[in-house]
Amino acid sequence: MPELPEVETIRRTLAGHITGLEIKKVILYWAPAVRGRGDSSFADIVSGSRIQSLDRRGKYLLINLDNGHTLIAHMRMTGRLLYYPEDLEPARHTHVVLKLSQGELHFNDTRKFGRIQAVLTAECFSTSSLSILGPEPLSEEMTPARLGERLARKKKNLKAALLDQTVVAGLGNIYVDEALFRARISPERSASALTEEELRALHQAMIEVLKAGIEANGTSFRDYRDANGEQGLFQKRLQAYGRGGEPCLNCGEPLKKKKVAGRTTVSCEKCQR
DNA sequence: ACTAACCTGTAA
DNA sequence: TTACAGGTTAGT
Question: pLDDT tens digits, residue range A62-87?
């Protein structure tokens, strides 16, 4: 579920609550949700540490502790990190509770795909999951030329290439469809055959839609909630995702819904070339 | 490059 | 009952 704007919103809404707090105790309701390191269990690593700062890389949330460790969390489709200022009986599908010096952090995940892993902070970015990620789409280094370079290395269609986290980190099914719609480029085009003008349009559309998503606190199309349990608002601004059969906002023709790269994809076959 | 697998819930 | 869901990865 959470793509870059949703994870960034979780990071922001969580940081104000938990930065500086001590993790007093770890309660596991479903142990596979967490992973320790070597012989040390997740609970042993985390207990007694203090939360220093929160970062994000692609769709990964990074919680830096003051004991040389970092927690790498990925929500996959339905994961939530929820902060409660008071003790609270865990809701259904809560797999981990971190008791803090003030309040609690609950990791809740209906589909059980999400994971939280404890790693050494020094090795964080060289862990297998993070080391393979492409550049951050909102960073300075992401230029139209850089995007073109990364896309050109893949012999896939655009939809598959933009979902590929090694090409660019943080886009998922919603924001790929939105970026392509706004750039007026077909998801089925070859990733390696864009003109410079198309690359500029795609680059700009990608950045604009991600920034707008963050601005709106993410897209709560279904399960997504921020750390306060609040919905985002960007589902009201979607122009393509979830609008199959509805009129294109440019030309009025019905938007087409079809599988591309194994994912449901909505596009306007008249506007997007 | 496509499919199954990991899971549960919801809607058709 | 079946299909499908903001993701990733390990298989063909």
Answer: 999 999 999 999 999 999 999 999 99
A6 and A214 Cβ atoms separated by less than 8 Å: no
Q: At what angle do helices A144-152 and A196-215 cross, to 10 degrees?
A: 110
Per domain, the residue ranges of chain A are: 4-131, 144-267
* Helix spans in A88-194 (H): 128-131, 144-152, 158-163, 173-183
Q: Which of A50, A184, A263, A270 is catalytic?
A: A263
Give the count of beta carbons closer than 10 Å to the beta carbon of residue A159: 24
What's the CA A253/C1' C9 distance, rounded, in angstroms? 37
Residue A123 designated active-site = no
A59, A150, A159, A182: which is the annotated catalytic residue? A59
Q: Quick check: is A76 catalytic?
A: no
What kind of fold does domain A144-267 have according to CATH? Answer: Helicase, Ruva Protein; domain 3 (1.10.8)
Give the Cα separation of A167 and A154 in Å (integer): 8
Q: Which amino acid is at A229?
A: G
Instruction: Supply the CATH classification number for the domain A4-131.
Output: 3.20.190.10
- CB atoms closer than 10 angstroms to residue A85: 10
Distance of alpha carbon A71 from alpha carbon A69, whole angstroms: 7
pTM of the predicted protein model: 0.98
A195-242 per-position pLDDT tens digit: 999 999 999 999 999 999 999 999 999 999 999 999 999 999 999 999
